[in-house]
Amino acid sequence: MPGERPEGCCVNHTSRQGHPHSHLQTSAGTRSHTPGLHDDAGCSSQVYNPDNKTCCAGRLSNRVLGKNLCCGTTPYGVEDRGVLCCNQTLHRGVEAGHQCSPGGHLYLPSREIVCESRVHLNNLGKHCCGEETYDPQDEICCSGHKHRRLGNMSCCGGKAYNPSSGQMKCCADTLYNLQVQDRLSEDAQCCGNILMEAGSTCCSAPGLDLLYPTQLGFTCCGHRYPNSSLWSCCAGVLHPRTERNTTSMNMIPGLLRILPLGDLKTEKLCDNKVLLGTVESVSVKKKTRSIVMVNVMSMQASRGHVNALPSPHYLTLPDHCSSPELVPGNTYLWVKTRHFSDTINVISDLSDHPSPLHSILSRCSK
């Protein structure tokens, strides 16, 4: 109509939904515009008339009545028969019942199963393991690799092993054969993904484990291994020693170390009272450390005792400096001594266990 300002539309190329803009207004000022033509940057900045052209993902096609949807660079219509758009690829001649997998692969659910990028015949009871299928009754899937299930099998990275045999040790998804190394499983300990050898010391901080040759007079402070005559340590933080602070901070840095669950001796884990909970916050009160935890359970696994405690639950460690750094949001296991039920002598971080309670009970039920 006379006096109206011509408008165009910045279009979403898959839905063709957009918002109007003035043909005469740009971020740089004003410009002239040919009536009936629309400038759409999504079509490689080509000038086109949407009445007779369709733009799909930067490609112009002749407009066909009813084909107002885009699949990649191809226009199609919602009423087109035998077509299905999967991951911006238009499939034609598709039989009824076909679907797109989450990865964009065309398949027929009644006859097929999609494992990552591969389509397999859907044998009843089969599941995906990586790109292959497997039978969970006879096989175990470990990080995309299937193995024959023999007894009480568990995964260690992409490998399977029987933890109750005492012949293998899993260190952060790396599997070690203890028979080859002439080691006992109860004595073997991990430092990250490394199996520790005699004469070595593991120093740990959240997300970092470092192995050092054991030296007289050196002790852990978080992931560091300093000379304790030169450095004092408080909760994983180093402080140079002076005459004034030689007694003000812990003389035995890193006394309480966070251990992997697999390094805890079975009797200590299963026979003692333990707490399992998620750290919500940590604060320091004089020389003690105050910890607020949620979702806390108290248990003595060997007796089958598991109790949920009220949330929040408060825990106090008597010496802040000798305690390791704790990460709010992580789930920890706190092992209490047998005779002094309020004293914590072992902490284990179970945040990387999908089900910490199951991990504990499965260890204690062997």
UniProtKB/TrEMBL annotation:
Biased composition (Polar residues): 23-33
Superkingdom of the source species: Eukaryota
InterPro entries registered for this protein in UniProt: Galaxin-like (IPR055284), Galaxin_dom (IPR056601)
Pfam families: Galaxin_repeat
Start and end residues of each Galaxin-like repeats domain: 42-172
Residues covered by region (Disordered): 1-36
Name listed for the protein in its UniProt record: Galaxin-like repeats domain-containing protein
Organism: Oncorhynchus mykiss (Rainbow trout)
Lineage of origin: Eukaryota, Metazoa, Chordata, Craniata, Vertebrata
